[in-house]
Amino acid sequence: MMCMAIAAKAQRIEKGARMAFPGGKAFIFRVQLCDKRGSAYTLDHPERFLSAKALNRRARQHLRVDSTDLPLSATYLGKLRSCGFQVVGGSKWNNTVLVRSGDSAVAARLASLEFVRGVKKVYTTPDSVNRPQPLELQPDTTRNSNPKDGAYGQSCWQISQLQGQALHERGFRGKGMTIAILDGGFMNADKIPALNRAHVIATRDCAWPYNQNIYSLIDHGTMVLSCMAAQDSGRILGDAPEASYVLIRTEIAQGESLLEEDNWAMGAEYADSIGADLINSSLGYNQYDDKTTSYRYRDLNGRTALISRTASMLAGKGIVLVNSAGNSGMGEWKKIGVPADAPDILTVGALGTDGKNAPFSSIGPSADGRVKPDVMAPGFPVKVISGNGVVKEANGTSFASPITCGLVACLWQALPGKTALEIMDLVRRSADNFSTPDNIFGYGKPDFAKALKLAE
Asked: Are residues 254 and 346 in the same domain?
């Protein structure tokens, strides 16, 4: 199950309206390549496949470009295409290719190729899907009635709980930091007045079948973005309003499959290549439509799932990943999902207004005994902007994550000499349960004023 908001995953779906699946019936296979021989790139010239910002981020943290960063072998991709296979994606960090075919028996042909190490079916398209219902913008003239909340308006509580104002008062509002958001859609985020000042520098669709207009899809990503980037004084204010944003679709709103892990990996790699400093991922998985591919508790070790292996690489590229813990606390599963189990990331659970863990917030630890979640943040309820432009209450670790991520960006702006690992360590050390971490609260609720003081 994906860990979006408590509401149903396929938001704004018109009941009864169906449409044929784009491109017709097909199967997607994850093809593991043996190596990268024949790549058109070398480590001597990383500027050919990574942006200057990405390289500068690594240089500041004394991190080297390595073979995982090399693009996939052009030779092998050419051979796949010459054999009649349709390549629809791939991950350079995992050295995998996504191949689409209308024939489910094509796996044997793929596996017989001399440069292929393994083949796994990751997606079977449905015959038809629900037709999304667009959201029309609505006027929202609400203002906070409590003058003491000032410019923060209705978002004051969720930011003050983490002492975020202390960073803002010192001028740290995310300027110079780039945050990538991996999500399922950003409906109307380009039209909502309170998001007009959000500095979106790039968008990308990494979820096949690709849709170039990510602003026409579900509004979960819109709500996530609003936690960090909204600017409407006296009504709502995000906690990193001066940061730059990269909006990336990786989630398929209808259905759950292993393919979404491959999408996520492609999204993370794009975020790295464009120079993102942080990634917010309010996504997570444990149960898939094909039950044979679902995870078990013992798989939550940060190594079994492709998405978790990818997540665990990000700090080594100089990126902080902030990921929601999941909303399974009240269900049969109860535990975190993937990639929340990954090491070297910040997994965030949800707190209620009473300071206790939200009942739906997924628990840890990881299968190999690491503390999870890492930290807790407001998520029950918080104020967000939905796809129709209206401020509303929402519940979920989906929102605890970006509330944390935005303030991590502000903290890193204040401490530009720190590495990704050092920033995450400061956040954990500032939390109120740091001395006695557990599998409910993790290290507890961060105090970003304290985190900054710990580093000074």
From this structure: yes
Structural contact between residues 252 and 217, judged by C-beta atoms closer than 8 angstroms: no
Hey, which residues does 124 pair with through a beta bridge?
27
> What is the CATH classification number for the domain harbouring 184?
3.40.50.200
- Give me the DSSP letters along 123-172: EE--SEEEEE-PPPP-------S-GGGGGGBTTHHHHHTTTHHHHHHTT-
Q: Same domain, yes or no, for 409 and 279?
A: yes
Q: What pLDDT digit, counting tens, does each position of 319-364 carry?
A: 999 999 999 999 999 999 999 999 999 999 999 999 999 999 999 9
CB 429 within 8 A of CB 442: no
Task: Give the Cα separation of 131 and 119 in Å (integer).
Answer: 32
Contact in structure between 139 and 425 (CB atoms under 8 Å): no
Distance CA 240, CA 77 (A): 40
Q: In terms of pTM, does the model score above 0.85?
A: yes
Q: In DSSP terms, which residues pair with 394 in a beta bridge?
A: 382
124 and 138 in a single domain? The answer is: no
Identity of the residue numbered 218: I
Nearby residues of 333 by Cβ (< 8 Å), 6 or more positions away: 1, 286, 287, 362
Tokens of 301: 């070790």
- Residue range of the domain that includes 359: 132-455
